[in-house]
Design a protein that fits this description.
mainly alpha; 3-stranded mixed beta sheet
Length: about 160
């Protein structure tokens, strides 16, 4: 009888330890996901569209994956570039997504990562603002930060020239 009590006690202690271990692992990740902690990030595509309508600022959507080496390299370059961080913080509604939004307009040439697209407050995806690559038009690499900054300025300029 004593063996059964000890066995039951052992099992309950073990189960309790597993529950505590799982609780410790469920930390919520910040909205920035490492793309810039001083930038205000939208929680969802729908929230970003709503904020864009209120502010009349363009939306920049960064599609990436957490464990993708190309996404990670781009993220590091994006964070290290102070001019991009400043423009993003001041002039854009920012959204980074690790899952597709469901809006097929945000994947005009396919579902690959990383890719960056711009949307204006009239809800038009600015498909003409592209990166340097003909096979993945909206892809950027860490060496493309100057081009990305120019495209951010172009998105901002197009918005103001069309209003």
């Amino acid at each position: 009888m004593l063996r059964w009590v000890v066995l039951a006690l052992f099992i309950s202690v073990f189960a309790s330890a597993e529950v505590q271990k799982k609780k410790g692992k469920t930390k919520t990740q910040p909205l920035s996901r490492g793309w810039g902690k001083n930038i205000k990030w939208a929680k969802s595509y729908e929230e970003a569209l709503s904020e864009m309508a209120k502010s009349q600022k363009p939306l920049m959507v960064i599609h990436h994956l957490d464990n993708c080496p190309h996404s990670e390299a781009l993220k590091e370059a994006f964070v290290a570039d102070k001019s991009i961080q400043k423009i993003a913080k001041e002039d854009f509604i920012m959204l980074n997504v690790v899952e597709e939004t469901g809006d097929k307009n945000l994947a005009p040439d396919g579902y690959y990562v990383p890719r960056i697209l711009f949307v204006d407050p009239a809800l038009t995806v600015r498909a003409e603002i592209v990166g340097k690559y003909s096979d993945h038009l909206y892809a950027y690499t860490p060496d493309d930060m100057e081009h990305l900054a120019a495209n951010m300025k172009k998105a901002k300029l197009l918005l103001h020239s069309e209003l």
